Amino acid sequence: MVVVLASLVAASAVRAEERLPTYLRDRGTGVPTSMFATWVERGELLVYPFAEYYYDSNYEYKPAELGYGLERDFRGKYEAFEQLLFLSYGITDFLAVEVEAATIHARLEKNPSDPSAVPREIKEAGLGDVEGQLRGRWLTEAKVRPEVFSYFETVVPTAGDNILIGTPDWELKLGTGVTKGFSFGTFTLRAAVEHDFAEDETALGEAALEWVKRLSPQFRVYLGVEGSEDEWEGITEVQWHFHRQAYLKLNNSFGLTSKATDFAPEAGVMFSFPVAR
């Protein structure tokens, strides 16, 4: 019985995919979210509980920024485990809203050559980043033109007395991107500017080049390069769509430059609920 139901679901997905033009078969018709290779349809609620681990053997820190006076950069060892919840809702065919919140356990091991009063090891746990985004699509893709979208992100202050986790002050980000699908995959190029109120600084934010390909109704793969200034990372992801309303996401990022995190695996299950049509 289970095999029969799985076959029927797969056949239905194949028929739905075949009705789409080639340039939309990798992603469908939804608005792009901030999650890699994830789109939300009008009236759809996405719920994504997931976990992520970070390891960086040469994490850059400055004792003064940790409250210990010395204005010099050092490299220490950093580890963290984060539990997150992501929600996204498709308001219309062109507009979506999302929120994300995290709890985190982090540890920083001091560089032996650091002469400051920074403790040999700092451990912190608590609320991590809390952010929201408004995402809009200005132009839908056609056979000879790309899709154009934009997004506005707000990160709220959550650090409190913590120095390793959370956000010390408001952060704002405004970005835009273009997407074009081909028979060999779908490409997205995006970039943003951001303002950090803690530093009172506006600068170029994250930029990325992404590729996604639906291999079958059940499997989709993603490759990307993302970063800013001297912190760049490569990203890989595999998605297993084992149910019409749920799929497994297995993701990993790895540092391409010395200041980027060495590696950061992520795993979770994305749930889709039709709220209204």
Descriptive overview:
This protein has one helix spanning 2-19, and strands at 31-32, 39-40, 44-61, 74-90, 95-109, 121-139, 147-156, 171-182, 185-196, 201-214, 219-228, 231-243, 246-255, 263-274. The longest helix is centred in the first third of the chain and has 18 residues, at 2-19. The radius of gyration is 20 Å and the shape is elongated. The two termini are 31 Å apart. The chain is 6% helix and 60% strand. The protein is built from one helix and 14 strands; from the N terminus they run αββββββββββββββ. The strands form two sheets. A twelve-stranded antiparallel barrel has the order 3-4-5-6-7-8-9-10-11-12-13-14. Strands 1-2 form a two-stranded antiparallel sheet. The chain is mostly beta strands and 277 residues long. The protein has one domain: Beta Barrel (Porin), CATH 2.40.160.40.
Concise overview:
The chain is mainly beta. The chain has one helix spanning 2-19; strands spanning 31-32, 39-40, 44-61, 74-90, 95-109, 121-139, 147-156, 171-182, 185-196, 201-214, 219-228, 231-243, 246-255, 263-274. It has a single domain, classed as Beta Barrel (Porin).
